[in-house]
Write a structure and sequence with these properties.
The protein is an alpha/beta fold. It contains 7 helices and 7 strands. It is 34% helix and 25% strand.
Length: 205
């Protein structure tokens, strides 16, 4: 999905539809991330979430990947380049180091892929994670009329191919991660999740 056409108005479209609810989902659990050092952020939009992450984890170095050049420009203008390497690429095929990142960030990103693409994508991201990695996710939930309308909108404006949400939970579990924290909002339509590698001993949800 390429959001170039939407980039100049993306923030305002989001506010019109959801107020700051999506921002709050992206910023959930950031207080837990202050010790992050190597971060992979994928399809993270116009840089608002990136700026918040850098403020919460000031010593982190971030690899920021997006297919949209205009979104990358907005993110670079908002968050700067001091601790961020920006890359225009497709997360499904972008070269990634092995066991490099102690934090992976995918906000409203995994819901852009169907079953065919999502499993190999999660597998390659898991290989890029360190044994002590954490994974921040925010997503929509369910396949009601609002979610279906959003999929239609992004299919028309940004070329989104998938038509429904795929449950990423069993895929992350299969590749060595466990859900440790979750917050729901908008009567369960929105969720923020913190996943941790099985190598990290932590209480279950």
């Amino acid at each position: 999905m390429n959001c170039d056409r939407l980039a100049p108005w993306y923030r305002w479209i989001e506010y019109a539809g959801f107020g700051r609810a999506l921002e709050r989902r992206r910023e959930a659990f950031l207080s837990e991330m202050s010790d992050a050092r190597r971060v992979l952020a994928l399809g993270d939009g116009d840089g608002r979430a990136l700026a918040a992450l850098l403020a919460a984890a000031p010593h982190a170095c971030v690899d920021y990947i997006d297919v949209s050049p205009r979104m990358l420009e907005l993110a670079r203008a908002r968050a700067g380049t001091k601790h961020v390497a920006y890359c225009k690429d497709d997360a499904r095929t972008a070269p990634l180091p092995v066991a490099e990142y102690d934090l992976i960030v995918t906000h409203f990103f995994l819901d852009c892929f169907d079953e065919t693409d999502l499993e190999p994508l999660i597998a390659r991201l898991a290989r890029a994670a360190t044994p002590q990695a954490r994974w921040l996710i925010s997503e929509f939930r369910g396949n009601g009329w609002l979610v279906r309308s959003l999929y239609l909108f992004f299919r028309i404006t940004a070329g989104l191919r998938t038509r429904r949400l795929v449950n990423h939970h069993p895929l992350l579990e299969r590749h060595g991660f466990r859900l440790t924290l979750r917050e729901d909002a908008w009567r369960g339509l929105l969720a923020s999740e913190l996943w941790m590698s099985d190598a990290i001993k932590s209480p279950n949800v």
